[in-house]
Amino acid sequence: MKTNTEVNGDTPSRCSRTFSNAPGRPARWSQAASPDANRSNVAVGPAAGRGRTVPERRSVVGPPERILILSDTHIPARARDLPAPVWEAVDAADVVIHAGDWVSVAALDALQARAVRLVGVFGNNDGDELRARLPEVARVELAGVRFAVVHETGSSKGREKRCSTAYPDVDVLVFGHSHIPWDSTTVTGLRLLNPGSPTDRRRRPTHTWMTASVDDGTLGPVTLHHL
């Protein structure tokens, strides 16, 4: 059984951090774990997508993975805890991706302790303790699909062009900040995903998060969940 939680970053001072945590499920955010941090490297392979010249993918890229995508949980500022359906999705996922604005260290500890594997970044509302443990940009390859995670991508105007330029070697870019769900594909084939927020819908009609799967170098259908 996998029990590692990985946080992989581009920033040199925060690059490729891996936390090992014992399996288990905390009852609430307030039950914080104390992970033992150490460093490890993540291999970066070829990217795929229209408009790119890349080597052929490996025929074997690992088992399928079920992914839960979250962002802007703002615990406990906007909610005392994640909604029950989100915790159920955490339990069902092989990998949880969080695009920042955790707000509390306890939120990171709780999700880290319960998720099989966690990939996360800090957001603009995250303080020094969270920034010491999380990168600004995380990169990970899952079943042959190359993901990057970042909190902010700027204005929606021109977003696809900016992100294609900034992340030329990535298949899927997960971001947050706006609390507004986003799912599009750029002209270069980069998939952009923002899951919204499961706790702070702002002017949106529902709270949201995403699930997806990856298998043999392909991202499967992405589902936006509403609550």
Automatic annotation (TrEMBL):
Residue intervals of the Calcineurin-like phosphoesterase domain: 66-216
Pfam families given in the database record: Metallophos_2
EC number: 3.1.4.-
Cofactor(s) needed by this chain: a divalent metal cation
UniProt keywords, alphabetically: Metal-binding
CDD domains documented for this protein: MPP_YfcE
Region of interest (Disordered), ranges: 1-58, 195-214
Enzyme class: hydrolase
Bias-annotated ranges (Polar residues): 1-21, 31-41
Family to which this protein belongs: Belongs to the metallophosphoesterase superfamily. YfcE family.
Protein's name in the database: Phosphoesterase
Organism, scientific name: Pseudonocardia abyssalis
